[in-house]
User: What shape does this take?
Amino acid sequence: MRKKIIAANWKMHKTVHETEKFLRELMSSDMPHEAWIAPPFTSLHAAAQIVSNAKVKIHLGGQNMHAAAQGAFTGEISGSMLKEAGASFCIIGHSERRNLFHENDAEINAKLKSAFHVGLTPIFCVGESAAARDSGDFMDPIELQLSSGLLGIESPHFKNLVLAYEPIWAIGTGKAATPQLAQETHNKIRGYIAAKWGGDIAKSLPILYGGSVNVANAKQLLSEPDIDGLLIGGAALEVQSYLSILRQQQ
Ligand code: PEP
Assistant: This one.
C-alpha cells in the first residue's frame, strides 16, 4: 500500500499570524486524513509548536532548500535549518523554482541528495511544458528531469522519496489535467522508474498529481490507480477547501 499524501504548497502566502490561524482552524475540525503543509520558512517554527498537539498528524515542510549545509549563500536556507524549525519534508524542483529562479537539474540533484542526507523527505516535482505536451513527446523532458534529478541516489533512499507530477501548463492556470491524462502520465512515469530503478521501487513510490486541483476535481483524480495523492497550491490556502479535499481521500 502506497502512502496517500494530500500536500499543500502555500508558496509566498501567509504571515506567521495567518499560518497559526489556519492551523488552529484545521485542528479544530474533524480532520479526516493526515495533512502535509509547506508554509513559508518564517512560519515553520511557530507552526511546529501548534501542530505538536494535533490529533491527526500534520507534517510540515519547506518549499525549497539549498544543497549546501551552510555557507555564504545570502537568502538561502539549508535542510538542517528546515529540519530544526520543524520540517519533515521539502518540495524540491518545483517548476516555479526551475523557471523563475533558473534552477537546473544538477542543482536539483544536489538538493535531493542533501535532503536525504539530513533526513527530510523530498517531494520531487517533474512536469512538461505546454509545448512538450502538444508535441506529443511529453515524456522526454519528464524522463530527463527524473534521470538527472535522481542521478546517483542510492536505492535505500527511494523509500523516503515522494514524486509529484506537475504539468507546467496546469499550475495556477485553472486548467487541470483530466484524471485520464494524469493517470496515463503517472503510469508512464511509474513504468520509467521500474525500468531504471526496478519494479519494487516503482511499486512503492508515491506519485502525487499537482496543477489546478480543486474541490470539484480532487475526488476523480484520487480515484485513479497511479495517483497517490495531490500537491495543491491555490485551493489549499483556505481551510475549508483544503479540508474538503482531505475529506475526499478516505
Ligand atoms: C503548485 O504550485 O504546486 C500547484 C499545483 O499550484 P495550483 O494548485 O495553484 O495549480
Remarks:
- The first strand starts at residue 5 and ends at 9.
